[in-house]
Amino acid sequence: MNELFVDLLPLILGATLVPIYPIIVLLLLQSERGLGKSVAFVAGALIVRLLQGVIFGLVFAPAVDAESSAGLVLIGPTLLTIVGILLLVMGAKKWRRSGDDEDGEEPPKWMSTFTEMSVIKAAGSGALLMLLSVKQWVFTLSAISVIEEAQPGIPAGAGLYLLYALATQILVLPPMLAFAAAPQKSAGPLRAAQGWLQRHNRVIVMVVSLAFGIYFLYRGIAGLLAVRGM
Predict the structure, then answer these.
(1) Does some domain include residue 139?
(2) Distance between CA atoms of 147 and 161, rounded to whole angstroms?
(3) Is the pLDDT of residue 103 over 50?
(4) Assign residue 216 a region: left if phi > 0, alpha if psi is -120 to 50, beta otherwise?
């Protein structure tokens, strides 16, 4: 079980260290009814991630039970390879744009709409962001594949996926709790955190993409070579 968690940890970190998600939460917290909007936004995203686990878990689980399936062992390494390639491409694009002073300095204009939306729209935006994010899809599918291939059983597998889904919220929960406990005192630090993330967005994405891209690509290729040698 500990080894399985170690395999999930890079996927948790990769899904978590994407600046756009905490930036939106920080923006929502600074708006009118900010706590309710941020909770709704996170809840919408989390519900979609949990539904992905349920739906695709039902797809992967029968495949795992069908031990005669020769292609089963290729699922995990293939997904990890895809993750690695996607992240390396993203990191390379950010690297090439390193000379662009505007990249990462100012938030996109559409982000200003988050401060004006209702609680219901915030929930829908969180769900939509999770549905449209290709990287999050691949991280989620990879996590499901890693869990199912280990065959920990339905209760343990569900618990591990729930742990994965909750752990991906680790960057947004502290500011939300701080705001709930002391809205006035936390306003300044929240603005500072938002500004820092926006200013360093390009660098964060580049470093995270390249580092995790290399790691996932290595794990994926190593897995594919191991399967080929079987």
Answers:
(1) yes
(2) 8
(3) no
(4) alpha
Question: Is 77 among the domain residues?
Answer: yes
Domain that holds residue 137: 2-225
pTM: 0.79
| 102 pLDDT tier (thresholds 50, 70, 90) | very low
- Is residue 162 one of the residues assigned to a domain? yes
Total domains, the chain: 1
| pLDDT tens, residue by residue, 26-62 | 889 888 888 999 999 999 999 999 999 888 876 666 6
In a domain, 230, yes or no: no
